[in-house]
Amino acid sequence: MIEKGQKVIAKVTSVVAYGAFCEVVDGDKVIKGLIHISEFSDYFVNDISKYVSSGDEVEVEVIDFDNDKNQIKLSYKKLRPELLKENDSSIKPTGDGFGKLKDIVDNE
Q1: Which CATH class is domain 7-107?
Q2: Where is the composition biased (Basic and acidic residues) (predicted)?
């Protein structure tokens, strides 16, 4: 039985602009799945074929599983730390902001 968070081997059946369709074998069942483009890397992905090609077998993590539809959502990046951005990705304060600009305008 497939569960969220489980690592599985997925065979890529086709690559499209928005992701890669895959098949995962679970016992005697073949489950259809998708690795969405957003699950390849936290960084900009221009071409999915730089990560996978049709016929590749890749280790991925299960994000979600719909037993009724026999479909699975997969993540490529979760098992590859180099594709993840750092946890501290919040916007940092710039300091003075418009203060320096205001001083320049006021002094002219």
Answers
A1: mainly beta
A2: 99-108
Give DSSP secondary structure letters for the chain. ---TT-EEEEEEEEEETTEEEEEEEETTEEEEEEEEGGGT-SS--S-GGGT--TT-EEEEEEEEEETTTTEEEEESGGG-GGGSPPS--SPPP-SSTTHHHHHHHHH-
> pTM for the full model?
0.76
User: If you search the block for the tokens 């005697």, which residue do you land on?
Assistant: 28
Extents of the domains making up the chain: 7-107
Task: Please tell me the predicted confidence (pLDDT) of residue 102.
Answer: 65
Q: Which residues of 36-72 are buried (b: 16+ CB within 10 A; e: fewer)?
A: ebebbbeeebeebeebbeeeeebebbbbebeeeeeeb
Task: Encode pLDDT of 21-66 as tens digits.
Answer: 999 999 999 999 999 999 999 999 999 999 999 999 999 999 999 9
